[in-house]
Design brief:
By secondary structure, the protein is α+β, with helices and mostly antiparallel strands. It contains 23 helices and ten strands. The protein has three domains: 225 residues, Hypothetical protein af1432 (Orthogonal Bundle); 130 residues, 2-Layer Sandwich (Beta Polymerase, domain 2); 45 residues, Beta-grasp domain (Ubiquitin-like (UB roll), Roll).
C-alpha cells in the first residue's frame, strides 16, 4: 500500500480535491513521525497506517476519519502531541486519535501493533524460561483467562463511553485491529493466540454491535485461524475443494431466481452469500453435524430498490418454492437492535435441498455491510441523515445515566439487557466467563471451552441442578 494507491482508492464523487490534499498532508505528517520505526515483518511502520486508512476508505467515510486512521498511532508511539494534531488537522481529528489511544491503553489488552520485541522483553522471557517460570506474556495470558470477565467488562465500558462521545474513534480502532489481525502471522506464536482470543471476545462483538458485518466476519475468521488452527484449516480446505462445483450450482440458482423476479416484474441484483469459516464452524457445533451438512445449505441475497419490492419478491419466492416453517424473519418491519434490516426466509429448492434467501434494499445492504459507518458515507454538502441521528441518539441514551458508573462489572451488567440482550454469559468452574448466544445449550458451552470436552460431555449442571444437554 502506498499513498498513491490510497488516493486512487478514493471515489471522486465522495472526495473533493481539498479532501485528497488533506489526506496526503496527513500521510506526510505520519510518515515523518514514524520515520525509522519498523513492524515485526520488517516493513516501515507507515505501511500499517496506510492500511488502516485504506480499510476506512473502503467504507467511504468522511476525510477526517481517514486522516485519523493515518495518524492514529502518532501520539502513542512518537513525540507528536494532541496539541500538534489540533494545530495541524483540527480538534475533531485530535479527538478521534485521543479516543483510539484511550481504547488502546486498556489494562491487559494487547495492542497487537506488531512492534518488534524489545531487548528487555526478550531478556525477561529468557530468564523466565531458564527458571522454569511463566514468561511475562504467558503470565499475562494466565491473568487474562482468570480475569476475562473483568477485562471484557472494562473494555466494553470504556468503549461504549467512547462511542457515546465519538463513534468514529471506535471505527478507527476496529480498522486498526483488522489490519493487525491480517498480519498476525508475523507475531511470535505465544502472542498470536492471545491477540486472536481478545479479537474474538471483544472486537468482533463490538463490530457486530455497530452493525459492521463486513469487519465482524473477517475478524472472526482471522481469529479462528489462530485459536483453532486445525479446525480452520480443515474447513478452509473443504471449501476450496468444492469451490468450482459450488460456483456452477449457484450460477444455475441465480439464473432461476432472475426468471422468477422478472416474471414478478422486479429488477433485482442477485448474488451468492459468502460462506464465513467461523459461522460454518459455529453451525457445525450448534447442530452437531459434519461440514458436508452445513455446506449443503445454499444462501443467496436479493437486492431491490424499495421496501415494497422486497415484500413482492418474498411473495414470488414463496409462491414458487415451499417455505420451511420457522425459518422466516422480518427484520424490515422489526429491525435488530443494531438497526439491521432484511427479510430472511428458507425454501425447499427444485433439487429438494434448502435454499436460504435474504431480501433487502440496496440502502439496507450498505447499512448491513458497514453499519454505523454507512451513515458517514461522504457527500458534498454533508446531507442530513435522520437515521444516523437515531443511531447516535440510541447510543447516547444508553450512556446517559451510566456515565457515572465507575465499576466496570456493574456497568456491563446494566448494558446487557439493552445492548447484549441476545447473549448469555456462563461462568466456568475456574471463574472464566464464556459468551454465548441466547438459546445456547450445555453442549455449545462444552465445545466452546474445548473440542475434546464437547466430545466427552455426558451431562451438565446449571445453578447446581442437573439439566439435559439440550437445555437452553
Amino acid at each position: 500500500m502506498s499513498i498513491e494507491k490510497l488516493l486512487l482508492q478514493l471515489p471522486k464523487e465522495y472526495y473533493l480535491p481539498q479532501d485528497r490534499e488533506l489526506i496526503e498532508r496527513a500521510y506526510r505528517f505520519a510518515e515523518e513521525a514514524h520515520r525509522g520505526q519498523k513492524r515485526v515483518s520488517g516493513e516501515p511502520y507507515i505501511t500499517h497506517c496506510l492500511s488502516v486508512a485504506s480499510i476506512l476508505a473502503d467504507m467511504h467515510v468522511p476525510p477526517k476519519i481517514i486522516v485519523a486512521g493515518l495518524l492514529h498511532d502518532t501520539v502513542e508511539d512518537t513525540d507528536v502531541t494532541l496539541d500538534d494534531l489540533s494545530r495541524n488537522f483540527g480538534d475533531d481529528v485530535a479527538k478521534m486519535v485521543d479516543s483510539v489511544t484511550k481504547l488502546t491503553s486498556l489494562p491487559r489488552v494487547s495492542r497487537g501493533d506488531q512492534l518488534p520485541e524489545t531487548p528487555e522483553e526478550r531478556e525477561q522471557r529468557e530468564i523466565a524460561a531458564r527458571r522454569g517460570e511463566l514468561s511475562p506474556d504467558e503470565e499475562a495470558e494466565r491473568l487474562l483467562r482468570s480475569r476475562r470477565y473483568d477485562l471484557a467488562s472494562e473494555t466494553l465500558r470504556k468503549t461504549f463511553l467512547a462511542m457515546a462521545d465519538d463513534p468514529s474513534g471506535v471505527l478507527v480502532k476496529l480498522a486498526d485491529r483488522l489490519h493487525n489481525m491480517r498480519t498476525l502471522r508475523y507475531m511470535p506464536p505465544h502472542k498470536q493466540k492471545r491477540i486472536a482470543q481478545e479479537t474474538m471476545d471483544i472486537f468482533a462483538p463490538l463490530a457486530s454491535r455497530l452493525g459492521i458485518w463486513q469487519i465482524k466476519w473477517e475478524l472472526e475468521d482471522l481469529a479462528l485461524r489462530y485459536i483453532a488452527p486445525d479446525v480452520y484449516a480443515e474447513i478452509a480446505s473443504s471449501l476450496n475443494e468444492r469451490r468450482s462445483e459450488r460456483e456452477r450450482e449457484m450460477l444455475k440458482i441465480k439464473v432461476r431466481l432472475m426468471e422468477v423476479m422478472e416474471q414478478a416484474g422486479l429488477q433485482a441484483d442477485i448474488s451468492a452469500r459468502p460462506k464465513h469459516i467461523n459461522s460454518i464452524y459455529r453451525k457445525m457445533i450448534r447442530k452437531d453435524v459434519p461440514f458436508e451438512m452445513v455446506h449443503d445449505v445454499r444462501g443467496v441475497r436479493i437486492l431491490l430498490s424499495t421496501r415494497e419490492q422486497c415484500y413482492q419478491a418474498l411473495g414470488a419466492i414463496h409462491s414458487t418454492w415451499r417455505p420451511i416453517p420457522g425459518e422466516f424473519d422480518d427484520y424490515i418491519a422489526a429491525p435488530k437492535d443494531n438497526f439491521y434490516q432484511s427479510l430472511h426466509t428458507a425454501v425447499v429448492y427444485d433439487d429438494g435441498k434448502t435454499l436460504e434467501v435474504q431480501i433487502r434494499t440496496h440502502e439496507m445492504h450498505q447499512r448491513a455491510e458497514y453499519g454505523i459507518a454507512a451513515h458517514w458515507r461522504y457527500k458534498e454538502g454533508g446531507s442530513h441523515d435522520p437515521d444516523f441521528d437515531r443511531r447516535i441518539n440510541y447510543i447516547r441514551q444508553l450512556m446517559e445515566w451510566r456515565q457515572d458508573v465507575s465499576d466496570a462489572r456493574e456497568f456491563v451488567d446494566s448494558m446487557k439487557s439493552d445492548v447484549f440482550g441476545d447473549r448469555v454469559y456462563v461462568f466456568t468452574p475456574r471463574g472464566d466467563i464464556i459468551d454465548l448466544p441466547v438459546g445456547a445449550t450445555p453442549i455449545d458451552f462444552a465445545y466452546h471451552v474445548h473440542t475434546e470436552i464437547g466430545h466427552r460431555c455426558r451431562g451438565a449442571k446449571v445453578g447446581g441442578k442437573l439439566v439435559p444437554l439440550h437445555y437452553e
